[in-house]
Amino acid sequence: MTIGEKLKKCRANTTYTQADIAKKLHLSRKTISGWETGRNFPDIGSLIKLSEIYKVSLEDLVRDDRMLEHFDMQRKSNNREEKIIQVSYWLNIVLLVLELIHIIWPNEFHFTIIPVLLIINLILYLSHFSSWDRFKITFYTVKMLLTFALVFMVTSIGGIMNQEFMKGFSTHDAYYSSGMMIAMIISTLLLTISTVVVIFFRSPRE
Prior knowledge:
Layout (H helix, E strand, L loop, with lengths): L2 H10 L5 H8 L3 H9 L6 H11 L3 H5 L2 H40 L8 H16 L9 H23 L2 H8 L3 H27 L6
Helix pairs in contact: 1-3, 2-3, 6-7, 6-10, 7-10, 8-10, 9-10
C-alpha cells in the first residue's frame, strides 16, 4: 500500500474530510488531495501531525518504498544546500576582509573583481538562505537595521577620512574624484551589507 492509499484509508476511518485535514494543517485541500492520490508527498512535519490526527504510528505511515526514496532525495538535496550555505558564508567573510583592506588602503590594494565576487556571493547566499522567520521578530529586525546604519556610517567616515583617499581626491580632476567617491560609496555599501549578513543571516547550521 502506498503512502497516498494509507493516508486516504486513515482519513476514511475518521469523520474528517480533506478540507478538515487541510484546515488542521493550515494547507489547501488540493495539497491533501495530492498526497492521497500520490501526486506528491507530505514533509516529515506534516506526517507527524497526520499520525497524531489519525492515531497511527509514524512508522506505519512511511513504510513505503516510494516515500523512503522521496525522503532520501530530500536528504541529499538538504545536504547539498547546507554545503552551499557553508561555503558561501565563509567566502563572504574572506571577501569582506579583502573589501575592508581596499577601503583602508585604496591606492595600494585595489582589485575590481572583489566587489563583483562579493555581489555574486551575497546573491548566492541569500537565495539559499531559508531562516527568514527570524525577521518576523520586530526586535531582531530593528537591531539589524540599526546595525546596518551604524556600520554604514562608521565605514563611510573611516573611508572619507582616510589620508590616501583624501590625497587622491584632492590631487585629481572632478571626473576622477567623482569616480572615486562613487566607488567608495559602493564599496562601503557592500561592506555594510556583507557585515550585516555575517551577523544576522548566519545559518543555524553554521
